[in-house]
Amino acid sequence: MDARLNYFDNPTAGKVLKQFMSVGRAFRESSLPAATQELVALRVSQINGCAACVDLHTKEAAAAGESSVRLNLVAAWREATVFTEAERAALEFAEQGTRVADAGTGVSDEVWANAAKHYDQEQLTTLVFLVSFMNAVNRLNIITCQPAGDYQVGQFH
């Protein structure tokens, strides 16, 4: 499968991607746990069907020490016993923040309050921006048919 656009050969895309990469660095520098960030990014990407991002976040999480069991169970996190209560709160937040059209109201007060029990204001802020950011990146990759499978860990850092 060939991508419709090569982001790295396009001057406009190059300028925009530079900004996107700086956003990604800001997330990594936040106090939201790195494992939680990867699980959230992976779940949002699964929901949206973004194969390129599923590839990237699965490989990055595995390289950071995430177990294959947990990675394989992200799509079925509700029934899985391998996630902490904080991670479960973040995954539910990610789902509601991604399925805004389905939920009609976005993130419910109950889901927000549950996330706030586990994360401080800075971490909640990161969670809000991460979910929004991943939805944007997923759409960019889906619209341009970015292929999956060839991502190398650290490729975009």
UniProtKB/TrEMBL annotation:
Annotated keywords: Oxidoreductase, Peroxidase
An MF annotation (GO) of this entry: peroxiredoxin activity
Keyword Oxidoreductase appears in the UniProt entry: yes
Domain of life: Bacteria
Domain Carboxymuconolactone decarboxylase-like: 19-95
A Pfam family reported for this protein in Swiss-Prot or TrEMBL: CMD
Protein name from the UniProt record: Alkylhydroperoxidase AhpD family core domain-containing protein
Species per Swiss-Prot/TrEMBL record: Nonomuraea maritima
